[in-house]
Amino acid sequence: MNLIFDYDGTIHNSMKTYGPAFRSTVEWLSENGFAEPREYTDREISYWLGFNSNDMWENFMPHLAPEIRQSARKRLGKDMAERIENGEGSLFDGAEEMLSELRNQGHTLIFLSNCRISYLERHRRIFALDRFFNAFYCCEEFGFIPKYEIFRRISGNHNGDFIVIGDRFHDIETAVKNNLKSVGCSYGYGNDEELSSADIIVYSPAEITRAVSRLLK
Questions:
Q1: Are residues 117 and 72 both part of a single domain?
Q2: Rg value, the chain, Cα
Q3: Could you read off the pLDDT of 158-178 as tens digits, one per residue?
Q4: Which residue from 99, 143, 149, 213 has the fewest beta carbons nearer than 10 Å?
Q5: What local confidence, expressed as pLDDT, does residue 217 receive?
Q6: How far is CA 192 from CA 118, 195, 202, in A?
Q7: What Å distances lie between residue 98 and 5, 136, 140, 161, 204, CA to CA?
Q8: CB of 75 within 8 A of CB of 48?
Q9: CATH of the domain at 157
Q10: Measured between alpha carbons, how far is 27 from 44 in angstroms, rounded to an integer?
Q11: How many whole angstroms separate alpha carbon 146 and alpha carbon 58?
Q12: Which residues pair with 208 in a beta bridge?
């Protein structure tokens, strides 16, 4: 079975680096008069995890001039990269064991994320993701088109059926629009409504292995 995994919020505990980088970036925007100063809750911040960075800034602060949005995007990305390099990031508890078990069972594990190439390569190196994944795809390679469209371009690279595993509507949408089975990860950054169309809901990475087995019956 081909298992398509989202990354941030499904495998990677993104808020450890995204939260402080986000707050630092919006502070910079307010200090320079580009945005009103205000505090953001973790929930407000984590909502944007799973969006590609272009869509995130266009929707989060549409009033910003395009060049300022790009500056903010790059600033946030640089901050996150530095934190990852400094060892501040981590995968969710149980994620590595789950991925190893699924790989050992003979499944093909496919990485599909709304991230940029530099982000993918950094995480691939730091967390040694090649131990688990047979293939890697990120939205920048495809001009930032939606995940469900990326799937249609890559599906021919893999023989057999697919299951989509992720925590946001982008992931479940990929499954629904391509008539695939799915596992919704409620421990991530989506809400119940986003995951309502998933075939199975899990509450920790450790539950994914059993969920996959159930979907194969």
A1: no
A2: 17
A3: 999 999 999 999 999 999 999
A4: 143
A5: 83
A6: 31, 5, 11
A7: 12, 18, 27, 20, 10
A8: no
A9: 3.40.50.1000
A10: 15
A11: 15
A12: none
| Separation CA 30–CA 195 (nearest Å) | 34
Strand runs labelled E in the chain: 2-5, 108-113, 135-138, 162-166, 181-185, 200-202
198, two tokens: 């998933």
Tell me the sheet residues that pair with 166: 184
Domain total in the chain: 2
Per-residue pLDDT averaged across 2-19, rounded? 96
Phi-psi label, residue 7: left if phi above 0, alpha if psi -120 to 50, beta otherwise: alpha
Rounded-to-10 torsion of CA 16, 27, 191, 111 = -50
Q: Is 142 left (phi over 0), alpha (psi -120 to 50) or beta?
A: alpha
Task: Give pLDDT tens digits for 75-98.
Answer: 999 999 999 999 999 999 999 999
Helix (H) or strand (E) holding 117: helix 117-126
Task: Locate 185 and state its tokens.
Answer: 């990860």
Domain boundary residue, one of 85, 105, 138:
85
Answer whether 125's CB lies under 8 Å from 21's CB.
no
3-state secondary structure of 95: helix
Beta bridge partners of 202: 185
Measured over the CA atoms of residue 146, residue 152, residue 154 and residue 158, the dihedral's sign is: positive
d(CA 196, CA 194): 6
pLDDT digits (tens, 9 = 90+) for 19-43: 999 999 999 999 999 999 999 999 9
Question: What integer best gives the mean pLDDT of the chain?
Answer: 96
Task: Look at residue 52 in the predicted model and tell me its pLDDT.
Answer: 86
